[in-house]
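Study this:
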Amino acid sequence: DCWSCSWSLANSYHIYCGLQNGEVMMFDIRNTKEVIESICPTNGPQKCPIVSVVSIPSPAENGKEGLLVSTLQCITYYKRDTKNKFVGDLLETPTGALSSVSFEHDRSQILASYKPNTKYPKERHILMNLSFEEKTVANVVSTFEGGTNQHLRSRSCLIKCPDDDNHLLVCAGDQSTNTVRIWSTKDMQQLQSWDCRKEDGPIIAMGPHRAAGVNFICALTNQRLNQYKWLYSKSHFSEASQAFST
C-alpha cells in the first residue's frame, strides 16, 4: 500500500511512492507497470511505513536531486553517490510518532509534525534548518504546539507568505478542535485560527494552491476540500471557504 508520494524535481514524468513496507519506489507516469528505481532503508527502522517522501534539489547544484524520506519514527536524507545510487544520512531529530514532513526549498527548512503522546500531550510542529555538510544535519529552530489528539494521520505544510517570500508560514489542521491554525516563523506566534465545519470530519491535510494569480491554503477532510483565499489588503487568509466535495 502507498502511504505517501511526491513528484520528482529532476523529471516531471517521475513520481516517488512511499510504501507501507518501508520501501520507496520511482515510477514513470507514462508506464506505471514498471518500477524504475527502488530504495530500501539501510539505516533506521526496517519495514516501517513511509509517511512522507519529498524530492528536493541537490545543494551541489549538479542537476541531481535528493530525497527526504520519513517513516513513523525517523527522517533520512538520500543523495546520489558517484554511481548515481541513493545513499542515506539518518537525521538526528526529535523523538516521537511522525505524521508528516514538508520542506521549503529556498530556505532549506523542514517542518516535521508529530502526533501527541504521553510525554508530549500536544501535537508538535517542529521547524528545523537542514545543513548539507559532510553529514546532513537538522537543527531545531522552533516548536509550534497544536491540538491534544490526532485520530487520523494529518499532514501540515510549510509555505511562503504570499506577499513576502522571506516570510514562512506553518499551516496545520487541529483535529481536537476542528480548526485551521497558521503560525508565523518571523515572531513564532500564531497568526490565525478559524473553525471548520464539524460535519465535514477531521482535517487530514493542508496544502497551498495558486490559480489565476490568486493564492489559497487548502484544508482536506474526508468530505470536502476547503480553500481559503489570501487577502493582500489584510495580510492573512479569508476565513470564508470555497468548498469542493471529495
Q: What stands out?
A: The first strand starts at residue 2 and ends at 7. The mean pLDDT is 90.
